[in-house]
Write the C-alpha cells for this entry.
Amino acid sequence: MDEFISLILQGVKLAKDLEPAVQNLATHQNQEMISKLDEIIRVFISARERLSSHQDVSQMLQQQQQPQIDPSLQEYWLRTKMVELFQSQLMAERMSSSSGLENKQAEGGLAMELSGRDVQAMASSSAQRPRRRKDDADKRTMRVPAPRMGNTEIPPEDGYTWRKYGQKEILGSRFPRGYYRCTHQKLYQCPAKKQVQRLDDDPYTFEVTYRGDHICHMSATAPSVPPPQLPEITREMTQSAMAAQPPPWLEFSLGGSGSSMAAAGPSTVRYGKEAEFPVADMADVMFNSGSSSSNSMESIFTYMEGKWEPEEKKN
DNA sequence: ACGATTTGACCAGA
DNA sequence: TCTGGTCAAATCGT
C-alpha cells in the first residue's frame, strides 16, 4: 500500500512539474509534453495496478464480481482528461493572445497526437466510419463491461448523473439504444449526452457514446463545489460522493467497504435532496482547472488526503 | 409533490 | 422515405 501511495504522489508531482509548461503551451515542445504526459499516465496506471493487486482490495473486487476494466480504458480516461485540460488551456491562450499561428500549430499538434481517432481506436474496437456527420466531432465511443450480477440492464456507471429521455429500437440491433442527457441540463444548460447500447454479440458489453462535454461542474454556480465544512462527514456521504467518481476503476478502488454500491439503483446514480450535488470528483479537481488553474495541484493533495485519511484510520 | 422513466409521436437529416 | 434522435404526456417511485 505504501508503494501505491508513493506512486500516486510521484504522479501528482510529475503533473505538478508539468503545470508551468501548461501555462506556456504555445512555446512548449509538444513532443516533450507528450512524453511527460505518457509518463504521468504510466505512473497512475501502475499505481492502480498496485492497488488492485493489494490483497484486501482484490478480495473485495472478487466479492463484488466487479469486471476488470480494460487498462486501455483507464488510459483512455486519463488521456481524455488530459486533452480536455490542454484544450481548455489552449482556448484560454487563444483568447488572450492575438497571434494565432503558433497556437494553432500547438493545438493541431496536441489534438492530433492525443485526441480523436487514436483515443477512439484505443477505446473502441469497432471500425469508425471515415465519413463524418456534422456533430461527429465531439462524439466519443467506448465499450464498457456490464455488471455481471444484479441488474445487468443498468448502464454502466461513469460518475455522472444522467436522465433517460428516450429509447429506440435500432435497425439491425438486437437491443434498444437508450438516450441519456445530463441531469443538470435544465439548471446549468449542460449539453452532455450519452447513448448506451448493448452489443449484439456480447450482451455483457455496452457501447457508450458520449456527446458534448459536461459544463455543469465547471460553472461557478455549478454543483461541483463541496458543501460547506460540515461538523462530520459520514461514511455514507463519502460513499455517495464516491459514486460520482468518473473513473470507474478508481471508484471501486477508493470506494471503501463496497456494500450497496455494486448493484446501485436503476440507471442513474441518485442522490438525496441534501446530497444532490456530490463533491467535486478527483477528475474535476485534477483536470478542470477552469479559470484559476494555479491551485489545481494543491487541491489534488487536499482531495486525496481528505479521501485517504479516513480509510487509513479505519483499518 | 416532485423528479425520473417509459413510450408513442414527431422531426430532421441522409 | 426511412431511420435515428428528441419531445412530452402518462406513469411510476420516493
